[in-house]
Amino acid sequence: MRPYRRTSIRWLLRTVLLALLDMMAFVVSLLAVGMMVPLSGYGLDVTFPPALLGFAATATATLLVFRIYRQSWRFFGFAHAAAVIGLGLLGSALGWTLLILGQKATLGLGLVAAALTQWMLATGLLIGLRSLRRIARENMAGTKIRLGTAVRADLPQALLIGPAQWAMSVIELMRAEDDPQFAIAGILLPSEADVIDRIGGVRVLGSHDKLVEIAKAAEAQGRPFSLAITLDDGMYLGNREMTRLTHRARELGLELSRIKNHWSQILQRPGAEDPKNLSVPDLLGRNEFEMQGDVITRQIEGQSVLVTGAGGTIGGELARQLASFRPSHLILLELCEFNLYSIEMTLREKYPDLEIHPELCDIRSRDEVHRVFEKHRPAVVYHAAALKHVPIVELNPCAGVHTNIIGTKHIADAVTEFGARAMVQVSTDKAVNPVGMMGATKRVGELYSQALDMCGVDDPDAPRFMTVRFGNVLGSSGSILPLFRRQLEEGKPLTVTHPDIERFFMTVREAVQLILQSSASALAEDLERGSIYVLDMGKPVRIVDLAYRLIAQYGLEPEVDVEIQYVGLRPGEKLYEELFDDCEEEVPSKIGGIFEARSHPIPLPFINKSIDRLFEAVKRNDAAEAERIAHHLVKIPSSGARFDLITPKKKPSLVDTAATP
């Protein structure tokens, strides 16, 4: 069925005009044949006006009946030309039939030759008229593409890199542009073996392997390319070739535009498989940690569970995995509205029967935290909200203290006040023997949770406060792997702070499984209080080795295809990370693949007063005092200190301290 289309006056006028032009073509072709061939011998007079007009009207009506005028002359192409040739033949045949029957002419070979000659002349005129209209459009739009040269001097010259059919489609799109942004001046095909010299009037300059040679030659001739456009559908160029092409374009100063496979997006079908899927065993040199789900199910199923920082990398993965264990309620606490919306929508689509409660809340506000706890009364709390970027926290120590220490205290205090069963504190290896403020603030959060946990030694009903510590998370926001991948894809050198710097790495999935496995096991088996749970992550990985392995997975050669640049340690950054503090004892855990770290806790009254003192420094925006107290606190467990008041700089009675014996 054809859709109903309303006929407009403009369309009628256009059709009449085009039909008159075609009638003129048939008239001229018939008169020309009449002058070349003596048709009177066959009893025909083609100059007789009624006969002439009848012939032209019949032939033109054939074009009209077969809807040839639905096609625009401005975009005249091969398919349109083929239709004109075929319908012109049919129309001329009908016209000649009408002439012969009307004038009772005698048939003969000369008459057949005259008819074929007329048809060829008419076809040439019909195609010529349409070609002139397209040429006029291209010249008026200023988009005619010529060999190696931009028509307009102010347009940048572009180089197409891709298969011939794709290149032709891009050229056709450019011809349809009324206001082009560039002019296509050359084409590079997949193989040097291609014998094509031109595509759409644009010169084929060679294969994509000759990009450097061709770009330098164009620059030497005074017509440099400024833009390269390539097909990036995962099929034309492999991952290795695309990355190498990106690096070459960057070295030449070319802007590289990569056109993806848009059909897969239009049809809502998955495109080609991502060639950049990373092998975790190859990158880390070990297998991923696997959890036992039954023990987690027993602790989570039917419980009201709250996740702070639910929109972050760790918090979001925590929420997704917790949802699979069928809690009665899942409370998502997050400060960023968009992140909260994203994780909520993801969970609602995957778990439509789960009761989900999104809560916009700033953990730095005690009142907001208490509002959420009073409303939902969670049984288990997973505390993942934190500021974690080392250089940023180093430059903003008060913000780090406010979120990582004061915010943690607000959550932990609410757990106690509202009778939650347990709180799981997400920590980091940067809290071990910290040199920067990010690590120091996370370590104080560990110490506060440990102090609260130890308060319940003699009370089996007291809530548990557990800390889970792990290394860098591959792929998390702000981590090294997304940076390396972006630098590779943009053709830039990979930046490493120091040739000897090394870190413990794990995947997001592993990190969350560690949190769930250790906390659920500790609750199920009532493990010793005050312990910090640490994943056995094997040996640390040198960052430069991680860069080398990633480059190799892209099919490239380090220091040949991709340069490594050393940029120096950042503020608050250590050369080596550790999993256990100097004062901690490493103890094998009953949980497979997990260790326990046991250390000397700080008495709760002392750490409470010290945190109050930190809060005062934050309110005054006294960064120096906040740093002094935080770093002093993290040294206390290994100092053998007795817990006396910290002597402040100006007001001795207000600050807690620990004097060294």
Automatic annotation (TrEMBL):
UniProt family annotation: Belongs to the polysaccharide synthase family.
Domain Polysaccharide biosynthesis protein CapD-like, first and last residues per copy: 305-596
Transmembrane segments: 12-36, 48-66, 78-101, 107-129
InterPro entries associated with the record: NAD(P)-bd_dom_sf, Polysac_CapD-like, Polysaccharide_Synthase-Rel
Record keywords: Membrane, Transmembrane, Transmembrane helix
Name the UniProt record assigns to this protein: Polysaccharide biosynthesis protein
Pfam family, one: Polysacc_synt_2
